[in-house]
Amino acid sequence: MDKLNELNTDGIVPTAHAVPMENAFRADEVRDSIGIDNALANAPKRAESFFRVPKVIE
């Protein structure tokens, strides 16, 4: 860290990147839902229309 602190970082934005960055997210658009049955198709356990998970709080 001491070696890095020797560098002059004046004028460098804290979130700067070494290479140009672009937004990789798709456009936000309204789509039909995949439905409960499709969403839970591979769930190990299911309770009606919900994922069933182990209790973590005692």
Annotation keywords:
little secondary structure; 2 helices; two-stranded antiparallel sheet; 58 residues
> What best-fitting shape do the alpha-carbon axes yield?
elongated
Total number of domains: 1
Low-confidence parts: none
Strand content: 5-15%
Structural class: little secondary structure
Total beta strands:
2
SSE string, helices as H and strands as E: HHEE
Q: Calculate the mean pLDDT score and round it.
A: 87
What's the story with the biggest beta sheet?
A: 2 strands, antiparallel
Describe this structure in words.
This protein is mostly loops. It has one domain. The protein is 14% helix and 7% strand. It is built from two helices and two strands; from the N terminus they run ααββ. It has helices spanning 2-5, 36-39, and strands spanning 46-47, 50-51. The chain has a two-stranded antiparallel ribbon with strand order 1-2. A hairpin with a 2-residue loop joins strand 1 and strand 2. The radius of gyration is 24 Å and the shape is elongated. The protein starts with a helix and ends in a 7-residue tail after the last strand. The model has no long low-confidence stretch (mean pLDDT 87).
Task: Provide a concise account of the structure shown.
By secondary structure, the chain is low in regular secondary structure. It is 14% helix and 7% strand. It has 2 helices and 2 strands, in the order ααββ.
Write the layout of secondary structure elements.
Blueprint: H1 2-5, H2 36-39, E1 46-47, E2 50-51
Antiparallel strand pairs: 1-2
